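During the reporting period the student researcher (J.K.) took over the structure-prediction task from the postdoctoral fellow and processed the backlog of single-chain submissions. One of the processed entries is reproduced below for the supervisory committee.
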Amino acid sequence: MSTNESDSRDLAELGYKQELHRTLGSFSSFAAGFSYISILTGMFQTSYLGFYFAGPQFLWAWPVVLFGQFMVALQFAQLSAHYPLAGSVYQWAKQVSKPAWAWNTGWMYLWAQIVTIPAVALGWQVILPQINTWFQFIKCDVSTAKGSTCTDPNFPGTFDPAFAKNAVILGIAMIVLTTTINMAGVRAMATINNVGVAAELIGATGLIILFAVHFKSGNGHLLSDGTSGDGVMKSVTSALILGAIMPLYVMYGFDSAGSLAEETSDPRKRAPRSVLQALATSGVMGFLLIMSGILATNAPDKSFGAGLTSITTDVLGSTAGKFFLVDVALAIFVCCLAIHAMTVRILFAMARDNSLPAARALASVSGTRRVPVIPAVVSGAIAIVILLVNIGNPSVFTIVISLGIIFMYIAYLGVTLPLLRNRLAGWPKGGDGLFSLGGMGVITNVIAIVWGVLGVIDLEWPRVEYYLSDTYKWGPIEATIGVAVVGLVLWFGMMQAQVGVLDEHRAGTVSRD
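J.K. obtained the following structure tokens:
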């Protein structure tokens, strides 16, 4: 029996027929998780936050976040070995908890994915105008702008209105591209993603080496004051807690390899390895990038304010710096592509379980490309609508960006909490030869839960320093409650009565396509 035939049989034992193309290998599986985390994307978009709120010392929050996330990744690695199903977090919650809990975990996970698409799409605005001012289609007010990026010099997180409008134009262009590629099929998506990941690995490695070559003798910024240059946070501890938002924003999405399990050959072995490799590689490279950049900068007060983007051009000069910014722009694109692909898989996974409105349409698979086309279009359209909010109120969009990460961490808890109960009851039973945590399962699971709770609290905390007003600081909490309530109403009012694998997707039946 071939590997793909064996994988299809495994899938049938879990209740589903093989419908998606099973063509991905080890590197593609790893690339899915790595491109979702995308250290170049997250760090060039958000590193200014760490520097602004905690100064160079925010670097030391990075290994703490990496350790906590790795405890979560260990749980997901074991689950991906036992349940290699599209939809990862939703499917894992379904296997270890009751239907109501699993559906609401999937609901939060779905919105985490959808909201993150436009959040990442805004990243081109941070990079492209610095490569060439031609990309700033809508010109800034020169009286408030700072260079081609339209930033307000009083705070790096506020911008001239032209910045927000131009960001939407670039973001829509990116989402149209990712939608088209995801409609083309997993092979096209994986090929582009693999090229992008290879470029990101080479670029990040090259940047670390070049920063190292430019280390300044006696540079002591790694141990400097933990407050920002403007003295926003006076306490080192509080500064680091707020500075930890930056690595929390970057190091998630490592479950992506599990979400592509039904399109991966031998996923029981490849998915667990890819989950851990994606996070470990991103975590180590991210730490080295920040550290080497801090030690290499020529003008700390100027460079730290705009994060790694200005550090790169400061250390390497305009020409060489822009070369690496091109690589960052590519990394942002493949990151958005990967997130869009994961959104398609969660929509497909929940729809074939008849767990969403218009489930049959959302779960339909193209007869030739073997990919869910409608979820790609729907998620792209919703992402563009959300992106348009940025034109009228960039501050509100800051809340939207936060919600993508908050919902993800809540969804992760939706898996780790019931998983601990299952472990205490003797899970797993069987599964010889699969990835196992052995006696460390319960201990790492407990740490993962504690870490997840602390992460959600840190991200949800109503801070004027981040949301810039007493009105907006409560936005994440209010929005989280609102989305959760809508989910509960949908479940008890509609979904609970109809949930169940659709006939055309159940193992042993003939598709209607």
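The committee noted the following: Residues 28-150+159-427+477-501 form a domain with the Amino acid/polyamine transporter I fold (CATH 1.20.1740.10).
J.K. will present the remaining backlog at the next meeting.
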